[in-house]
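Why do we care about 3D structure at all? Because function follows from shape, and shape follows, mostly, from sequence. That is the central idea of this module. The next example makes it concrete: a single protein chain, its amino acid sequence, and then its structure expressed as tokens.
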Amino acid sequence: MNEAVNVAMDLAHETVTRSEIWGAWGFDPLALAALVAAGWLYARGIIRLWGARGPRAVRPRHVAAFYVGLTLVTIALVSPLDALAGALVSAHMAQHLVFLVVAPPLIVYAAPGLVMSSALPRSIHRSLNRARRPLALVSGVAVAVVVHAVVMWIWHLPAPYEAAIANEWLHMLEHASFFGSALLFWGAVVEPRARRRVPYPAAIAGAVTIWILSGGLGALLSFATRPLYPVMAHDAARWGAGALADQQLAGVLMWVPAGFTYLVAIAVLFVRWMDSMERRMQRAQAMEVGR
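And the structure:
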């Protein structure tokens, strides 16, 4: 039974060869339409905010971060990396990292909620303001960490992973859930504004939790003694890579580069926390002297 399932998945899972890879650009109309719409909405919001308040409303560095993040997502979806991700676990992991730890913090840093809501009609903008409190509960750090961790681990289990490889709609859902849960998580960690919504200790605890869980997933892939995704084994051989070695490389990518990103975020949060405490103490001392 299992062998028949694997044969069926192999037939559904067509991958590119070495000679075809550089011509394997994809143009998914749904994904491209969503990316173009996001870029247009952000640009419209920037024009309105800068027209009303000037560049101080949203700094140019935030605008640059948004469009760099959006460009990276586009590259991950339409470049030959997407085709290669269907053949090699390591390429698939590299694509996942764009959706998990590269593009989301850049986009969150760009304050997309503030900017894009400014581009909407006033009636919708007012409705979003009224929904801010319940949205804040959903985007709390504890909920964000749980959702992000569950999404990350579920899609790397063998059955969901191979199902996503074999089914294009599931593959799109996988990417969307990675990206969406990462935006939720980084939104609770990265604050583009001076006034934080999530306290530093909570943000640090959330980042440490995800760092440990993603590192555990990377370690599991790196130290597994057999390939966990049999459907990828044949394609890895066609590319001159052993299935186990390819999987181990994927684990290292999740363990080291992704882990380093979380560590940098934790370090920045800690330094800023200490700095905010020092400023608070200085203000308290100044008030005492003033009395």
